[in-house]
Design goal:
By secondary structure, the protein is of the alpha+beta class. The protein contains 6 helices and 7 strands; from the N terminus they run H-E-E-E-H-H-H-E-E-H-E-E-H. The protein has 2 domains: 100 residues, Aspartate Aminotransferase, domain 2, CATH 3.40.640; 105 residues, Aspartate Aminotransferase, domain 1, CATH 3.90.1150.10. Helix 4 packs parallel to helix 6. The longest helix is centred in the middle third of the chain and has 27 residues.
């Protein structure tokens, strides 16, 4: 999710007021395939309080296990001390190979191909959601990344829906995982990085059938409720 410029400014102002660092996880910053680039918080000031994290694990492959940290001041000093106390350094040959891969332009060419694939899968997912999910469902068309957030509405608890979805061969992250207190949510996160367009269509169609049946059956009683 990319927050609005006003929200980003307000976040930096709060961080400065209380002198607290902001951890910015930019693991998908290279995967934007549409719209204008959004500068990281670390590029918008923050009085040295923003710690920007970057990873190649999403844009290349999980096993690369190499990333970068952009920080300064006390946060940087604390991170360096922690790194020295744990493993001193990551694998130098892997870092050297990755540095050469980036410097040669091969990484940029890889990103061009990857963004094209992700855009096609994003389009397939949005079209499938439009076709198969109920009219009350709301989502925002992402301009990058690998995920789509959908709110099913109708008071559907997606944590409760997940077990039925797994039985139908569909996986998603229920909205309760993204609530600070774990409360129920009608939202869910759908990922499109690993599934081809045909699989996306089949999966969303199956999810749509489950949601339709759930709506027809009416709300389920809460656990422990008296009937």
């Amino acid at each position: 999710t990319t927050t609005s410029p006003g929200h980003r400014r307000a976040l930096l102002e709060i961080a400065a007021r209380f002198a607290k660092p902001v951890i910015e996880d930019g693991y998908q910053i290279d995967l934007r395939f549409e719209g204008r680039p959004v500068p990281p918080l670390a590029a918008q000031g923050g009085a040295g309080l923003v710690v920007h994290l970057h990873s190649f694990s999403k844009s290349l492959f999980p096993g690369v296990r190499v990333g970068a940290v952009a920080a300064r001041g006390r946060p940087l000093e604390a991170l360096l001390a922690l790194k020295r106390a744990t493993d001193l350094s990551d694998a130098m040959p892997l870092q050297a190979a990755l540095a050469e891969f980036v410097a040669s332009g091969a990484y940029d060419r890889h990103l061009t191909r990857l963004r094209r694939v992700l855009r096609g899968r994003r389009d397939a997912l949005c079209a499938a959601v439009e076709r198969h999910l109920p009219d009350a469902a709301v989502w925002t068309r992402p301009e990058g990344g690998t995920q789509l957030w959908v709110d099913l509405g109708h008071g559907i608890d997606t944590s409760d829906l997940l077990a039925d979805a797994v039985g139908a061969g569909v996986l998603f992250a229920p909205g309760s995982l993204f609530q600070h207190d774990g409360r129920s949510s009608s939202g869910l996160r759908l990922a499109f990085a690993m599934a081809g367009e045909a699989a996306i269509e089949q999966g969303v169609a199956a999810l749509g059938r489950l949601v339709t049946r759930r709506l027809a059956a009416g709300p389920r009683p809460a656990v422990g409720a008296h009937i």
